[in-house]
Amino acid sequence: MGNFQPTSALSRPDTDVLVVHCSDHRFQASLHEFLNQGLNLHDNYDLLAIPGGPQCLTLVEYLPKFSWASWKWFRFLVDAHSLGRMILIAHQDCGWYKTLPMHLHASAEPRERQEQDLRRVKQALKKDFPELTVELYYAGWDTSDRITVETVSP
Ligand SMILES: [Zn+2]
């Protein structure tokens, strides 16, 4: 392929929003739509798309080096961009969770494990970054593969 020139130009306005969600290909289009049309972010947000999404911020004891790197990226973005709003999204059938030992969570039920992690991250953020607003969401699909993004209560 030769050069490619997207129709979208450089986005100049500042953002104070960071989105953290999983890298799972099955959800990218619907999450993009949720962020831009559901939350009206107009493509103006920082994004960390990594396996397990926000779960990386809970691994202090189980995978300390992994956790350290995640927090390092996170702090960099919070400080460099004066972030004020975090959007953390977990999703149904997350492959990353299948690799985690059961003892890390209070429940064996996948969604409960993920919601527990979202709340853990929110608590940890409240301590280190009390000025941040943190929103928690869970994306799942129905029998016709339609995706719904639900708010997770804190
Ligand atoms: Zn995932």
Percent helix range: 25-40%
How many strands in all?
5
Strand content: 15-25%
Level-2 CATH architecture: 3-Layer(aba) Sandwich
Q: What is the mean pLDDT?
A: 93
CATH topology: Beta-carbonic Anhydrase, Chain A
Tell me the span between the first and last alpha carbons: 47 Å
Major sheet size, sense and barrel closure: 5 strands, mixed
Strand order of the largest sheet: 2-1-3-4-5
Shape: globular
How is this structure best summarized?
This protein is α/β, with parallel strands linked by helices. Helices cover 31% and strands 19% of the residues. The N and C termini lie far apart (47 Å).
What does this structure look like?
The protein is globular and about 50 Å long. The longest helix has 19 residues, at 110-128. It has a single domain (17-151), classed as Beta-carbonic Anhydrase, Chain A, CATH 3.40.1050. It has three helices and five strands; from the N terminus they run E-H-E-H-E-H-E-E. By secondary structure, it is α/β, with parallel strands linked by helices. It has a five-stranded mixed β-sheet with strand order 2-1-3-4-5, with helices on both faces. The N and C termini lie far apart (47 Å). The protein has helices spanning 28-38, 64-80, 110-128; strands spanning 17-21, 46-49, 85-91, 133-141, 147-151. Zinc ion is lined by residues 22, 24, 52, 91, 94-96. Residues 22, 24, 52, 91, 94-96 line the site of zinc ion (ZN).
